[in-house]
Request: fold
Amino acid sequence: MWSEDAAGKLILWGGPVFSSTVLFGLLTYTFWLMPGLRPSIGSALRIEITGTQFWWRVVYHKSPGPPAISANEVRLPVGERVEFVLRSDDVIHSFWIPSLGGKMDMIPGRTNTLPLLANRAGTYGGACTEFCGTSHALMAFSAVAMMPDDFERWLATQSSPAATAPAPGQDLFMRHGCGSCHRIDGTEARGLVGPDLSHLGGRETVGAGILPNTEETIARFITEPEVLKPGTGMPSFAMLPPEEIRAIARYLKELR
Reply:
């Protein structure tokens, strides 16, 4: 039969002392593992992501060569650990590609880094996971993992102006002031307020993941952006003649 003193010692050593020792050991082991799980790397490819209400600015940095600017879509090579550099222009956002790794906040005035590795080719969904305003739920993006050779060819095209024939839509785009907010490489459109449209036609979606990329959806976003994405800063151009809207949409869809 246990004495009161022996029972007290058993409770003390078998309870708080043993539990605390095990938990401290597991915590120490976790800290030891963390650098390997999320290593600090000097990656050859850095992808700079800036969260903005309610879209994503994307810039690819890889030497040698100039940066490639995109928006609302991320592409990365299979088998290569990529360093994502995360920032915010306005409020707190959060960057997350569930199939590839953990989420990380994007905080105004601060730069966070997140290394991610895609092991197989495919298209993965990404989203903002920090409530950031009216259209938080409509701030999505695609993450496309490509085979390394395919990615290098794609990145080379993104670093150069899209090859398009002269089109009425380009003149209309400039005449109606669209270039004041949007940038199209190789043209006089140098706006930085809205998403870069240099290779819009090659992206999978329009409006940061909310619509499939077709001429019809581009035209719809031109005429009713506030309906599709409440709180967006883009004004409606519904006052333009339908044929002009279609011409602009056709021109943008051909930018690949």
About this structure: The first strand starts at residue 45 and ends at 52.
